[in-house]
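in:
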């Protein structure tokens, strides 16, 4: 979900760089930074987990995921409103039948990605509230010990 949201922020900056306002670029940049931090946190690299410790709390991580999903929904609505406002003036962006395929694909991608981010956020929040993070940590530690035992057996 974070990778999709990251793409949702970077692609418009690359394609519509000249047409975007400074506010749109700033919001997309902040969201891209958040998404990169989520991708790095989910990769479970030990060095990065110490650096990105605020993301280690599942309740906080859930709120951040759902917040980014809500901002994605707002961007989707803004894109639809902008398309509707420009359509009477510019016949190249849409037709009598409605918005073009590019706009339809972009809004569909944004909607799906936003809902996935919100769903992941709600899931993390609920798991954190039900104290599943500690249980997961114990399972991960036990798995690590089993992997070390297996490696020692294989070497010996």
């Amino acid at each position: 979900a974070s990778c999709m949201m990251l793409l949702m922020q970077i692609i418009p900056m690359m394609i519509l760089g000249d047409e975007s306002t400074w506010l749109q670029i700033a919001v997309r940049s902040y969201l891209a930074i958040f998404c990169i931090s989520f991708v790095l946190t989910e990769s479970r690299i030990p060095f990065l987990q110490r650096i990105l410790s605020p993301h280690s709390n599942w309740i906080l991580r859930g709120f951040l995921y759902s917040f980014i999903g809500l901002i994605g929904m707002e961007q989707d609505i803004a894109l639809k409103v902008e398309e509707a406002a420009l359509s009477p003036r510019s016949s190249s962006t849409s037709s009598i039948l409605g918005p073009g395929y590019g706009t339809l694909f972009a809004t569909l991608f944004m909607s799906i990605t936003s809902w996935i981010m919100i769903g992941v956020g709600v899931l993390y929040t609920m798991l954190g509230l039900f104290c599943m993070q500690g249980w997961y940590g114990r399972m991960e530690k036990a798995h690590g010990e089993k992997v070390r035992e297996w490696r020692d057996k294989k070497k010996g």
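note: Strands lie at 94-95, 98-99.
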